[in-house]
Amino acid sequence: AGTADTMETLTRVDLNRNELRRVIEKEGGCFIWGDAVDFSPADTAIIRVERALNFDSAGSMVASVLSKKIAAGATHVVIDIPVGPTAKIRNRGQARELADLFRTVALTFDLKLRIEVTDGSQPIGRGIGPALEARDVRAVLSRSPDAPQDLRDKSLSLAGAVLELTGKVPEGEGIARAAETLDSGRAWEKFLAICKAQGGIFDPPVAKYQRPVNATRSGRVAAIDNHRLARVAKLAGAPDDKAAGLDLHVRIGDTVRQGTPLYTLHTESIGELSYVLDYVKSNPDIIELTR
């Protein structure tokens, strides 16, 4: 799910320019759907075509990411490039090429840029789909004991990178400052304040139909196919159906028994559930188990 797809399950994101200005002046930040204020109208049209065709290219990715940042007036940008065998970027060489492209464009527009190359061998968090990802976000921010640890860790790493890039803290101290802000409750308080300024906080919707996909044998999780898991979530109805997607229950390295749920499908209709189950049955190695 895109950021706006996820955030609109928690609060209003279709603010007009006057509302946007009011929220930023009051709270110092906002959650915004760029289309509502036409930050990058050409990018919106291109994304619709790319989603329909399941198409990605380095050039369109860089243009999509940076056009919105430039239009919004950003001066400092941290870019996360996950690398993994089934991620969009498959190896370190591709990551370097993409990073160079980001840097070239950023230099043209006088953007201060920091690239973080991270582990993309498996999804971060448990949910894939707008409402399910929003639930994970709330769990981390509210310091819930069952919050996904990997999402917390990555969030702190990227937040720390922003703090260091902007000079708010010395190099090497960003993660500690971000962790203190989260653990003290200030991050959650600010999140709630921004949501309140934008019209209130919502409870993410829950899908009408849920079905676990169980391990067909015992073994150790050796690999998780990000690309095909994203396909599963899309067939389930995400991101158009906000409650649709899947919940991932295992991580690489986990040991599972036959019959253990690997992930749970969330759909809004029996038809979508049947459709996605057919895909899952024809792709039994989405989560690879070794003995």
Question: Which descriptors apply to this entry?
Answer:
291 residues, alpha+beta, Pyrimidine Nucleoside Phosphorylase, Chain A, domain 2, Aldehyde Oxidoreductase, domain 3, 2 domains, 4-stranded antiparallel sheet, 3-stranded antiparallel sheet, 16% strand
Short description:
The chain is 46% helix and 16% strand. By secondary structure, it is α+β, with helices and mostly antiparallel strands. The chain has two domains: 3-197, 3-Layer(aba) Sandwich (Pyrimidine Nucleoside Phosphorylase, Chain A, domain 2), CATH 3.40.1030; 209-290, Pyrimidine nucleoside phosphorylase-like, C-terminal domain (Aldehyde Oxidoreductase, domain 3).
H/E element order = HHHHEHEEHHHHEEHEEEHE
Question: Structural class given helices, strands, pairing?
Answer: alpha+beta
Taking the sheet with the most strands, its summary is:
4 strands, antiparallel
- The count of strands amounts to 9
What's the gyration radius in Å? Answer: 20 Å
Which range does the strand content fall in?
15-25%
Strand order of the largest sheet: 3-6-8-4
How much helicity do the residues have?
40-55%
Assign the CATH architecture of the largest domain: 3-Layer(aba) Sandwich
- State the name of the first-level CATH class of the largest domain: Alpha Beta
Q: Note poorly predicted spans.
A: none
Counting copies of identical and different chains, the oligomeric state is single chain
Quick one: overall form? globular
In total, the number of domains comes to 2
| Arithmetic mean of pLDDT | 93
User: What is the H level of CATH, i.e. the homologous superfamily of the largest domain?
Assistant: Nucleoside phosphorylase/phosphoribosyltransferase catalytic domain
CATH topology of the largest domain, by name, is: Pyrimidine Nucleoside Phosphorylase, Chain A, domain 2
Keywords: Glycosyltransferase, Transferase
Catalytic activity: thymidine + phosphate = 2-deoxy-alpha-D-ribose 1-phosphate + thymine
Domain Pyrimidine nucleoside phosphorylase C-terminal: 220-287
Protein name: thymidine phosphorylase
